[in-house]
From TrEMBL:
Domain Methyltransferase small: 245-420
Native source organism of the sequence: Brevibacterium siliguriense
An MF annotation (GO) of this entry: S-adenosylmethionine-dependent methyltransferase activity
GO terms classed as biological process: methylation; rRNA processing
Name of protein: Methyltransferase small domain-containing protein
A Pfam cross-reference name: MTS
Record keywords: Cytoplasm, Methyltransferase, rRNA processing, Transferase
Listed SUPFAM superfamilies: S-adenosyl-L-methionine-dependent methyltransferases (SSF53335)
InterPro entries, A to Z: DNA_methylase_N6_adenine_CS, RsmC/RlmG, SAM-dependent_MTases_sf, Small_mtfrase_dom
Family annotation (CDD domains): AdoMet_MTases
């Protein structure tokens, strides 16, 4: 694959290199290849060196007036490290939205750092470009209002999510307000499903050349009568001993409207405990679609139920699931793996805490998030209470639970999952 979208000696290539040279500290950071590719694409389109697909536009007619400021507004979705906002705000007005609260904070820190660098560069007189203010929105619904107020052409960049439903919902949200949606990600993760979803809302779908390990799929020419999907999705989960529960899920919510097998094993274990002790309060750290918390509160008759999740889509899904089943719980947005998370301050203690921790970061196995969630559980566990943790059996978390929380015993185990009950010393 090519190392760049642009011919090495083109005007756009020179401008791209000059812009990147202003940020030498970013060169080795994750996310730079995608950010550089987007810079090249926008500059190439503006200078009429690239066509809509990101290919050499030599010999093609491109209207100079229409291309000169393309795009005038850019919506960035799930810019995890803030690098795209940092670089692209030098080229156009940028609005950002991140589903995860930890990534929202990382982006804000990057933008703040950019502002400081701008002031220093401006004082030294060695910066050729000035950054436009970066506007961050906390809810997807705010994007529509901003786009309607925008002057000129608006594009959106969606960093390809793992779940196709997340992309489907994002396209449905953005399509009425933008002229172009660019989905960017690793080439090996960009399936034909991306083209199909873009084709629901756009008359033209192009696949860019690969640059390094990355590629863009570009939807343009918005359809006047698109076939967009509705969210949240609706489903029903049937659990032995509990019956049927309605489930609601937004696109980026883990597991969608389904229950995962680990949570089902955890609920089976919980039901076996309730005859001897019924908790008055339940906390679910990483509540996802809210099914597990809803079942636990309904089955135990607990007076208090609280769910925490780092994902805005999960928080909205859990609230909708609890409401659909007539179960009164509170759901808050927060990073339960962060010991300094402000949303957890003053949270109090709970008789029962549920843990079904993630163990993947992308495609790599990582267990530090699980350890951080265990520490949070230990902090909020009431005397005499217990933490129920389910995990993939090969991870062997029991020793870690013993160390972080206290005495632990195995309640259930099958070919894939293990459930452990942990109590405070």
């Amino acid at each position: 694959m090519s190392a760049s979208l642009l011919p090495i000696d083109s005007a756009a290539a020179h401008r791209s290199r000059d812009l990147l040279a202003e940020f030498p500290q970013l060169i080795d950071m994750p996310g730079v290849p995608q950010a550089r590719m987007l810079v090249e694409y926008i500059l190439g389109r503006r200078l009429r060196e690239l066509d809509v697909s990101g290919r050499d536009a030599a010999g093609a007619f491109i209207d100079a007036e229409l291309s000169s400021e393309v795009p005038e507004n850019l919506i960035l979705i799930d810019d995890a490290h803030g690098l795209q906002a940092t670089l692209l705000s030098r080229l156009t007005q940028v609005c950002t939205y991140n589903d995860r609260v930890d990534e929202t904070r990382a982006l804000a820190a990057a933008v703040e750092s950019l502002a400081g660098a701008d002031e220093s560069a401006g004082a030294a007189g060695d910066s050729d470009t000035e950054a436009a203010p970066v506007l961050a929105v906390t809810e997807l619904s705010e994007i529509g209002g901003l786009a309607e107020l925008a002057v000129g052409e608006t594009w959106a960049v969606v960093n390809a999510p793992k779940a196709m439903n997340a992309l489907t919902e994002m396209i449905a949200m953005l399509q009425p307000f933008v002229s172009t949606i660019i989905v960017i990600g690793r080439s090996d993760a960009m399936s034909r499903g991306v083209n199909k979803e873009l084709a629901r809302g756009f008359g033209r779908v192009d696949v860019s050349p690969g640059v390094g390990k990355h590629r863009m799929i570009i939807g343009s020419r918005p359809l006047s009568s698109p076939s967009l999907s509705d969210f949240p999705r609706r489903g029903v989960i049937s659990q032995r001993g509990v019956g049927e529960l309605e489930v609601r899920a937004h696109g980026a919510c883990f597991a969608g409207t389904k229950s995962d097998k680990g949570s089902e094993l955890l609920i089976d274990s919980l039901l076996g405990l309730l005859a001897d002790e019924a908790p008055e309060s339940v906390l679910d750290l990483g509540c996802g679609n809210g099914w597990l918390l809803t079942v636990a509160v309904r089955a135990s008759g607990a007076n208090t139920g609280l769910g925490v999740d780092v994902s805005k889509a999960a928080v909205a899904s859990a609230r909708a699931t609890a409401k659909a089943n007539g179960v009164g719980v509170d759901i808050i947005l927060g990073d339960a793996a962060d010991p300094e998370e402000p949303a957890l301050a003053g949270l109090g203690q709970f008789d029962l805490i549920l843990l079904n921790p993630p163990f993947h970061q992308g495609t790599a196995i990582e267990t530090e998030t699980a350890a951080a969630l265990m520490a949070t559980a230990a902090e909020h566990l009431a005397p005499g209470g217990q933490v129920l943790t389910v995990f993939n059996s090969h991870l062997r978390y029991r020793a870690r639970l013993e160390t972080i929380i206290g005495p632990s015993e195995q309640l259930a185990r099958n070919k894939k999952f293990t459930v452990i009950s942990s109590r405070r010393d």
